[in-house]
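Hi R.,

Here's the chain you asked about this morning:
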Amino acid sequence: MSVPNFANGRASKHVAWLGPAVGVLVVSFHIQATPEIAGNPIRISAAELVAPFIGIGLLITSPRVWPIFSAWRVRGVYLWLIALTAVMTAALVMGRIYTGTWMPWALYNKYAGWFVLVGYFLLGGWIVARFGTPAYRAVLRPFLIACWLIAGYSLLDYMIGLFFETDLPGGSDTYRLTGFLENPNAFGLMVAIALAIQLPFMSARKMFGSTVSHLGASVLFAALILSISRSAWAGMLLALVTLVLLRSAEPRTVLRTIVIGGALASLIAVALPLVRGATAPHLDPQSFQALPGGRLVDPEFLASADDGLLARLQSSRLAVQMWREQPVLGIGIGGFLAPQLAEQAPNPVAIHSTYLWLLVETGIVGFAMFAGFAVFSAWHLVGSLERAPPEARIFLVAVLAVVAAFAGASVGMEAMYQRHIWFLAGCALALPGATGKLKPDKAESNGFRRQ
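And here is the predicted structure, written out as tokens:
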């Protein structure tokens, strides 16, 4: 795989490091840890160790700083970010009023985490705005390859768990695939996003060879199934609908991915255990019952799945009741979690829906602002499709499918703090400006370098 040379064209030779650095950044999106800071668990991505250095490097190596900030052709981006930051600040203050304390979870996880998301959004935009299409190529290829490898590793770990009741280093100790993200829903959404990106490029015969692309997509689809994330499945479905409506997903390509990936997941989770007489990973063999059709079902697993769904429904009902107390401005960040901590609940739960969380803790005003920014972004991406060069158009379509996957998954999970989504959105919104001087008839022949 060749790394785009950022030292060509208008870019200075002093930024040749940017291609490999961006590759490291997008690979590190796939790794998360949850250390405790001041007794408060905070989920941190390995990308946090890389992104600041790229941002500082961009500022230092830029001959003039302001062109980086003004290169966006989409007007109003910074105003939206300022308005959303005001919403989050107001919600933090409302949470202080509602709970009577500054909750560490509200301060660090949500409020400080918001600035991390803004940072990734701006970083993606600045990279593409300055260096054009070589930049997004450097983003997508390592991102997809890393996702293929991690998905394959997770499937291998799953099979080893089936037969040997042990795990590979860094593997999951549950019946659901988690990759290196510690959470099956986060991993499922990451895989769904990778598929949403890959399918339009596969359909256009771009980026990777046919055999490699189909193998990678099949592994991703199998991993998506075995993440057993209903939210990620919903997101993938909405992404497919988006690609079909935009006529960017070849039906034969999609069908082949589903068939091969589904067969691989069935082979791993059903056929192999039946042939070898193995049990599901880390579960008591005596708890299994053979059902008609040769399926093996663990009653405890089914009960836990039902309990999880019931708990989410109950927490959603409670969240709606609390929202009615302050519908316009919301109960503030941390307002839902604070009463549980005050009562020393053994297993405090958060709101498992981005939409409901925004509505309850930032109110109708905050929900409308975030929804407005999403519509604003999607509107500009759709409006850029016709005038974009061919491969740039595929990238814009892919990011629209990513937004659709995020929207679908957000119904059943709190997905707003997935860093890679904001980074990709920033890249896509800056791309029309970066390719604005490209003539479509030259785009294919010059490798999308800026003229």
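One quick note: Residues 13-67+78-435 form one domain.

Cheers,
M.
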